[in-house]
Design goal:
about 40% helix, globular
Length: about 575
Amino acid sequence: MTGYRTEYERWLSFAGLTASEKEELVSIADNEEEKELRFGAPMSFGTAGLRSRMYLGPGCMNVYTVAATTEGIARLILSENGAGRGVAIAYDSRNHSAEFARTAACVLAGNGIRAYLFDGVRPTPELSFAVRQLGCIAGINITASHNPKEYNGYKAYWEDGAQISPEQAQIVSEYVAQVDVLTGAHRADYDTAVREGTIVLLGEDFDEIYLSRVAETAINRDAIAAVAEDLKIVYTPLHGAGHRLVPEILRRCGLRHLYPVPEQMILDGNFPTVAKPNPEYADVFRLGIAIAEKVGSDLVIATDPDADRVGVMSRTADGTFATINGNQMGALLLDYVIRARRESGGLTADDYAVKSIVSTDMAYAIAERNGIRLYDVLTGFKFIGEVIKNYEKSGAPGKFLQGFEESYGYLFGTYARDKDAVGATMMITEMTAFYKKQGMTLSDALEALYRTYGYYREGVVDIAMEGLDGLERRRRVTAHLRDNPPAAIGGVRVVRIGDYAKGTITDLATGAQTPTGMPLSEVLYYTLENGDKIVVRPSGTEPKIKIYFLLHAEQPEQLDGKLAAYREDALAFTKV
């Protein structure tokens, strides 16, 4: 009997299964492919934690894998003598999220570690804030962000409020490998742990502390009030964790006319009104736009299920609605934050912003013109958090202005170390009010940026590589590119190659190599002769390879042909 079959039979015969769990395993008895997917190998725990479909088996998200992973986290904490500091735990609106969070709390309590468990669904950034505010050694968040309804996930944070480091993830992986997934976790009884104070519930009083810190990041507190009678915002949390705190922060900032999407204000892990609960997709705005047309709003805002990402659709000059994507919003916000801080007398040459390497180069142009510092980091908000941490440790002058990623994540304060859709929605609304007073929508403001800095366009292609051989296929693509680097892409010569797995940037004309200055990562970065850039990286959270395009031109019509040519060549990269 092969390994996955042996593991399947072990689970099937486990006496602790509930009747429904037993039924689930029996239902796949004749499906060898499904058994191999679920039982062939355990999930890999990395800096992004875990993310998978919710089924039984070591390769999926379930109470057993959550318990075993938490046992690994507990052993790391105990090895650091951190039991007395406790762990904050949050969860989103996905199916089984509350159950998984309670399981994690019971395992921590079973190991003598206090768990601070939120009493209901909360935004991811509030978890990051809680770790810092409560002085915890670590944090756990049960969420699969914007993935389809079949998925759930497990994110681990450390004492600075950012997700754990690669070194810590490796230690946790080694501990988890020593734990029997079915029986190896130490669990306390939930009710007993709550009564004894080993599990402490966090409620709305803690939300007040978080909201007050978010509100402090507002720059122009009069902007919304100045147009309060005319400013109308439509909002949807996409059935998720922004449903309560996003409307509340907007109310506190003076917004009088907020129109929530009623059907999507309901917490529901099946996400019944959307195919995928992702604010990057225009389809999730359909219900919101209908309301916007009815009430005369120029803006529809959507946050994802764990409320760390935010997407926007803005009315355009012809009266229709168009997406403002993550790169465009990052540039708009950076320009606005700099402008607002300068007008308030709060901007210095030492102030800084941070973005990921796959986010728009327009940010460089904005930063250079305005005399502020801009740092590039690897994809993953923990790297933005690391820059903030290093600034604070060094005592260097300068205020953190903004961190952003092209994937719709933004942060404006140092109270958290993760992207925050609550704070970002507040800042987007403040910016919208600023432009409304000038008779402009955000679409108008974006066009004004292009006229100032030239036209930037970014694109991304996702190549799904699922199934049993998905990981090997992804490795094969990057290995092939490393051994066979392209001389040109889309007919334009490649002049520099950044191989972030090796930590080097190579000038192809001279052969000279310089360090990337960043942690090692499976990323390949191609700079073309005309300044355009193409980046290839395996996703850290989904079974796919992502190819990013960062383009610039003086006129928008020049971008279409370039992007099409680059895409054609880049797609050929993956056919190996």
